[in-house]
Amino acid sequence: MNHTDVLVLGSGIAGLSFALKVAQKGPDFNICILTKADKNETNTKYAQGGIAAVMNTLTDTFDAHINDTLESGKGYCDSGVVEMVVNKAPKRLVEMIEWGASFDKKPSGEWDLGLEGGHSQSRILHHKDKTGYEIERALLEKLKSFRNIYFFTHHFAIDLLVKEHTCVGVKYYNKRSRKIENLFAQLTYLATGGSGQIFETTTNPVIATGDGVAMAHRADAAIKDLHFIQFHPTALFLKKENPAFLISEAVRGAGAKLVNKAGERFVFNYHPSGELATRDVVSHAIFSELQKTGEACVYLDCTHLDEKAFTAHFPTITERCRKAGIDVFRDLITVTPAAHYQCGGIAVNKNGRTGLKNLYANGECANTGLHGANRLASNSLLEALVFAHEAATEVIEKKDMGNPNLSLDFPSEAAVIPLTLPQDLAVYKTLREQLQAVMQIYYLGKHSGNPGQNDLKNKVIALAGEIENLFNTSAFHISLCELRNLVDLALLIVNEKKADITLK
What we know:
Catalytic activity: L-aspartate + O2 = iminosuccinate + H2O2
GO molecular function: L-aspartate oxidase activity
Low-confidence stretches: 498-504
Distance between the termini: 33 Å
Structural class: alpha/beta
Number of strands: 17
CATH architecture of the largest domain: 3-Layer(bba) Sandwich
Main location: cytoplasm
Strand content: 15-25%
Active site: 279
Number of helices: 13
CATH superfamily of the largest domain: FAD/NAD(P)-binding domain
Mean pLDDT: 93
Oligomer: single chain
EC number: 1.4.3.16
CATH topology of the largest domain: FAD/NAD(P)-binding domain
Radius of gyration: 22 Å
């Protein structure tokens, strides 16, 4: 197959819920979902906390959720988008439940709503401590019933095919045939996730290399506020672990305390909400504390919490800590901030449409205006659901995207790609680690007033030149392509790329 009606890049919640919506409303559409790894290997699968929504109007209000989101975003949110997402949240959550997702309830039958940092009320719908895993499972199971959806796993998207400011598909590498091929589409929808692998310490899986944003940038789509990278305050501190294991915000919502080596609850020195301040505040407090003490980590104290209730709510976290030699009911959990979420991305309007004709984006690769400078906990899965619905509705209403057949303008490369030599792979790995180390120091330096920021920026520029030269002179390899994408985004971050645009 080299032509399709709708092409979805990515198989997390943003991609799968959009494909499902289009398949439901447009049974005549052929929908291809292209993903670089297994279909369930996504950032979504690793989401622990849950989805924020006003599901109990006796204790919560839409205005409260809106205000919490705006406050967390530090003045950079689009208030119209925030209102739209929050107001449509309950309906989209009910729909997710109808698709087969299961969320925790109290013995009374009410939703067991969690509390997380930055939220003024308990409003987090969750499935124990593996909400994303449950959502991914439910969506993949639901999609099996549609005969107009086709999965292409282990296909790596290299670049968008663009003609006259119109996206007509993607150039990709087929890992099985070892060939570079073209897939043409009436409409292309980017749901490629984030870019946490730019940094040395991240909760993101190794596939999170910013592919969608980099491709869109090279195709001249507008990129907005990519320098707003959220560091999650509490990743399990184990040296040289990539990705780092996330200790959900919900653990602090359940009463866990952050302490320094002396046992002091230091976050209250930085904000009156203490451990339940927004993620940027708590991460900054930890960074500052580590600078003062010279320690490598701080500690999460769960020893006072009810063992039975904690294990029931956080079985994955309990087991992962046990494997690391930590008994969460007797020992302190070593934690440190880690790159977690890309708040900026491809600029889109309220329907997820980019500035390129027939190109949409959603999820972590997109900048919808919801998160501003700092995402409110558990708003990301919600954003993906709401924008998938809005995009699918517009796509179905448009029906005819009007793409001409441009196959002749983009010939496929029929040759089989030769295997890359081990020594070349070692070079790519070394360059990736160098980039990650520089970006980690650069980003943390922004919080500490490091005077060497320009030197670090110049190192990124030098690495970019070296990597681009390698890409242009070496045989294709996914590792090299991912490295190119990472350094492209690193350049946007250190240059603090902004786009003062409004997409209608």
